[in-house]
Design goal:
The protein is mostly helical. The protein has helices spanning 18-50, 55-70, 73-84, 88-115, 118-125, 130-167, 178-185, 195-259. Keywords: Cell membrane, Membrane, Transmembrane, Transmembrane helix, Transport.
């Protein structure tokens, strides 16, 4: 049945409501993609911190990053999905192990720049332990970049998860997911059931665009937050200083008049 007021996305070839199936598939995709992003970003943060230990660890991390980034992304995803299996845990591992290198490189450069600052060098000279130095002087500067990187990685992970399932290397077709819905819909497009692919695909596209917009807004806040806060503070302070200046100037003027 085509989309109508009763069934917003229509029904599939078995008469099931496509809107409820699409929502359930989107929630499942968000859950699996979120777990994969958290694991991938955690690996990236640990690898970036490991690269600061000494030059041998730094060389090893750079070698792994270059090795993973030299492989075609989709081919690496397919190989990892075949190794870990097509269930939820295997898909999470495949996405996590294929998306950490870029964020690792970004965080490593950020940490290296922080490690060269004077206050970081002074903290080391004062005898603070490495754990205290990382907790107080490293993580507060790196975690905003890490959070933005996770948000930017989320739409990427959702797209690749849907692509893997669509190609047959991801979740089982009976499991509700966006890739499975699109894969099943491709078999019925020639019969005139256009809504089977258009409605779930449109819902996935809108979700990805909203996530990308949210990530860009957070990135803008992280980059321009201190300047905006300083500007707004200056704008608020200036009007409040005017009554104080008047109160402070009046006694001086009165004393000058009496002395004259």
């Amino acid at each position: 049945m085509a989309p109508s007021l009763t069934y917003l996305f229509g029904t599939d070839w078995l008469g099931r409501d496509l809107f409820s199936r699409s929502l359930k598939a989107l929630v499942s995709s968000f859950y699996i993609g979120g777990m994969a992003v958290i694991l991938s970003c955690t690996i990236a943060l640990m690898m970036a911190m490991l690269a600061l230990v000494n030059r041998y660890f730094r060389w090893s991390v750079d070698l792994l990053v270059d090795l993973f980034m030299s492989l075609p992304h989709l081919l690496l995803l397919i190989l990892l999905a075949l190794v870990f299996g097509g269930d939820q845990q295997g898909l999470v591992m495949a996405i996590a192990l294929s998306h950490w290198p870029r964020l690792t490189r970004l965080l490593r450069f950020e940490m290296q720049a922080i490690a060269n600052t004077p206050y970081f060098q002074l903290a080391k000279q004062f005898g603070h332990s490495p754990l205290v130095i990382i907790k107080r002087h490293m993580l507060p500067h790196v975690l905003p970049q890490w959070f933005v990187g996770a948000l930017l990685l989320f739409p990427h992970a959702l797209t690749h998860m849907a692509a893997l399932t669509f190609l047959g290397f991801g979740l089982d077709p009976s499991t509700p997911s966006m890739g499975a819905l699109l894969s099943q819909a491709s078999q019925y497009l020639l019969t005139g059931m256009w809504w089977l692919a258009l409605c779930p695909g449109g819902l996935l596209l809108i979700s990805l665009l909203m996530l990308s917009y949210l990530a860009n807004c957070v990135l803008k806040i992280v980059r321009e937050g201190p300047q905006t806060a300083t500007t707004s503070t200056n704008r608020k302070v200036k009007p409040d200083l005017q009554p104080c200046i008047k109160v402070a100037v009046k006694p001086v003027i009165a004393a000058g008049v009496k002395g004259a």
